[in-house]
Input
Amino acid sequence: MAVVRLFASAREAAGLSVDRIDGQTVGEVLDEARRRYGEQFAAVLTHSRVWVNGAPADVRAQLREGDVVAVLPPVSGGSDTIATPRPPEPPARPPLEEPLPFTKPESDKSASGWFRPPEIDDIEGSLARLPTPAASASAAASEAASLNGNRRTAAAPIEREPLTVVPDTDMPHVRLGLAWITVTIAATVGGSTTLGLWMSVMAAVAAIQVTKAWMERHERPVSYVAVAGAAALPLAAIGGLDTVTGILVLAVVVTMVARVSNTTKAPSRDVALTLMIIVPIGMACAAPVLLRNLSLAAPLAVFAFAAAHDMGAYLVGTGAGNDWEGPVAGVAAIFCVTLFVAVLVPAFGAGGPFLLGLVAAILTPLGPLAASIVLGDRDAKAPALRRLDSLLLFAPVGAWVAAVLLH
Output
C-alpha cells in the first residue's frame, strides 16, 4: 500500500491531501487515483511530476509498503513549462498502458536502503511542511530526505564486515591458480635456490602493488625499502634462518634511517607502514624456502594446504549468499588434503599431518583478512598479494610446526 501526497493545485483538484492506495508500481497507484478522483485530477496529472520518497520516479518504479508518492503540479515546482501557454486539455488517458512524461529516476534510493520511508502516522506532520508555491522540486526532495533520515527500514541491505573479502570474477582465477601452483611446485622440486628466486619475484610484485595502493591514498611508506625488503627475505632464506633474521634487522634500520633523512609529517606511521609491508609478505614467501632446506615434502605440504583452501573458497564463495560459505568450503578441502599428507609424508609421524592440517584450517581462512589489513582497503587491487594471502599467517607458523615435526 502506497501513501499518495497531493500538493497545491492537485490537492485542490482532487479535494484531498493524503490517501492510501494499493499498488505494486507508481503506474498502478496513479491509475487508481485517476479512477477515484476523475477527469480534473487526470488533467492536472498530465502536467505534473511524480516523486517517490523524495526522488523523481516514472510509472515503472516499484513500490513498497509505506512508500510516499508525491504529485507535484506546476505551481509546486513540478513542471518546467509554467511560463508557456498551456495547450487545450487532452482527453482522458486510458489506464496507464503507456509511460507518462515523468522524470526518469536517477537511482532507486528506496531499494538501496539509503532513503528511509516515513511511518504512516507521521504523514500529517510532514504535510505541515509542504513547499510553498515558489519552492522548487529539489527543496521537496531535501525535506523528504530530512524527515526520514533517522528511521531504519527492515529492507535495508546487510553490510559486509569491514575486512571481509568476496571473491571476484574479473580474471580467470582458476587458470591463474593452476599456473601459480604448477610453477611453484616446479620451483620447489628444483631446490631452495630456485624456490627462493621464484618467491622473491612474487614478494616483490606483491610489495609493489601494496605500496602503490597506500600511496594512492596519500600515505608515505618508504617504497624502495618496502619492495627491496620483501624481495630480500626469500633470498635470505636460501642461506638459512640466521640470514633471514639479519635481513629483518637491516630492514628496520634502513627504514628508520631513510625516514629520518627525509622527514614527513608522520615519520613513525611511515616506518610502521613500511615494515607492515615487508614482514608479512616477505616472511610468507621466505618460510617455504626455509622448509625446502629441510626436505622436499614439507614445503609441498604447506603449498598443498594453501592451494586447497584457495580452491574451495573460490569455487564455493563466488556468488555465495553468505561470507562464511567460501572459507568453510576451504576448510573442508584442507581436511581432504590432510588425509593425503598423512599417507604420502610419513616423516611427519602419525599425528603430525593432522596437527599441520588443524593449523592450516585455522590460519588460512584468516589470511585474506590479514591481506586486507596489509592493504588498508579490502577493495584495493593487489592480485599478487591476493594470490599469497592464504600463506600470510599459515606459512610462517606452518613452517615452524613442520620443522618441529621433522625433527
DSSP finds 16 helices and five strands in the chain. Confidence is low (pLDDT under 50) at residues 7-15, 76-85, 93-158.
